[in-house]
Design goal:
Blueprint: E1 2-7, E2 21-26, E3 29-35, H1 39-45, E4 55-57, H2 63-66, H3 69-80, E5 88-92, H4 95-103, H5 110-118, H6 120-128, E6 141-145, E7 150-152, E8 157-162, E9 173-179, E10 182-186, H7 195-200, E11 206-210, H8 221-226, H9 230-240, E12 244-248, H10 259-268, E13 274-277
Helix pairs in contact: 5-6, 9-10
Length: about 300
């Protein structure tokens, strides 16, 4: 199992941090989890192309978690030239309707797709890529998920739980992936100390958790339940007994020299495992932090 952080930022525009996105590689499966603005560029910087991606998981449908999803769909279909299997898509409702509104015949990109399928110039490009006419309309395999669902594809498993975010307006999920004796949990956006996320992450090797702002600066208690602070994230990791906690979805106010170190020190008083300050394109050290070889 290999985990790479693609985007560790928020909806706020940033040149340093793309919005939410994570890359999980298990054998030949290339799994993208969330795909906010900028995450697709990071995917390419990590050495992967849209055609390499086999599965997509969405935790919820806030735009900072899914704005690059249509880019993944369209580029994968276009560059794939009908030579690769359809993308397997998982996420909460209404991801099926959202996908149809994007790439269905009457969707936002319907005219674009029709031109690429029917115009001779586009057919020429399609055939040059190895495609055989007639070209198929994109048809991702979509499964809408709910808390308690379980996925087993033979190489890895995924469990689903509900996070604490903006319900009832959006169903918000967290995922636990397991393969080859390694367990990885991503909370999605989850505020406060969410019991369902604690249970989902129980005993995990790696927990990626939202750390949106500095504890005590939240404007309201509701905001705290929606957007997790640093001490709440530490408490989730402590209760779940995870080996490594990775902090992500960070506001610029805390992603500053001095603040990072202060936050990690305060969290370490609650949680005694490894704490990783998430950065775009960071590959996580599965099995725990360790010294590199001295040159």
């Amino acid at each position: 199992m290999k985990i790479t952080l693609l985007g560790t930022g928020t909806p706020s525009p940033s040149l340093r941090m793309a919005s939410s996105g994570y890359l999980l590689e298990i054998g030949d499966d290339v799994i993208v989890i969330d795909h906010g603005p900028g995450a697709h560029h990071r995917l390419m910087q990590a050495g992967k192309r849209a055609v390499d991606v086999t599965h997509f998981f969405a935790t919820h449908l806030h735009y900072d978690h899914c704005l690059d999803y249509p880019r993944l769909l369209l580029q994968r279909w276009d560059m794939g030239a009908d030579l690769i299997p359809d993308l397997k898509v998982y996420g909460p409702a209404p991801i099926r309707r959202m996908t149809d509104l994007l790439i269905g015949p009457d969707g936002a990109f319907g005219p674009d797709l029709r031109a690429r399928i029917e115009h001779q110039g586009s057919i020429d490009i399609f055939e040059a890529r190895g495609g055989k006419v007639p070209r198929r309309w994109p048809a991702p395999e979509i499964r809408e998920l709910k808390p308690g669902d379980f996925i087993d594809n033979g190489r890895w498993t995924a469990r689903v739980a509900e996070s604490s975010h903006v319900q009832p307006y959006l169903l918000c999920l967290g995922y636990r992936f397991e393969a080859d004796g390694i367990a990885f949990c991503y909370s999605g956006d989850s505020g406060g100390v969410c019991p369902d996320i604690v249970e989902l992450a129980r005993g995990c090797d790696v927990l990626i958790h939202m750390c949106h702002y500095y504890t005590g600066t939240e404007p309201t208690e509701i905001y705290r339940r929606v957007c997790g602070n640093h001490l709440d994230a530490a408490e989730v990791a402590r209760q779940a007994g995870v080996k490594m906690l990775v902090l992500t979805h960070k506001l610029e106010q805390i992603d500053q020299p001095g603040m990072r170190e202060r936050i990690i020190k305060e969290m370490s008083a609650i949680y005694d495992g490894d704490i990783v300050w998430g950065e775009d394109l960071l590959e996580l050290p599965i099995g725990g932090a360790r010294l590199a070889k001295m040159e």
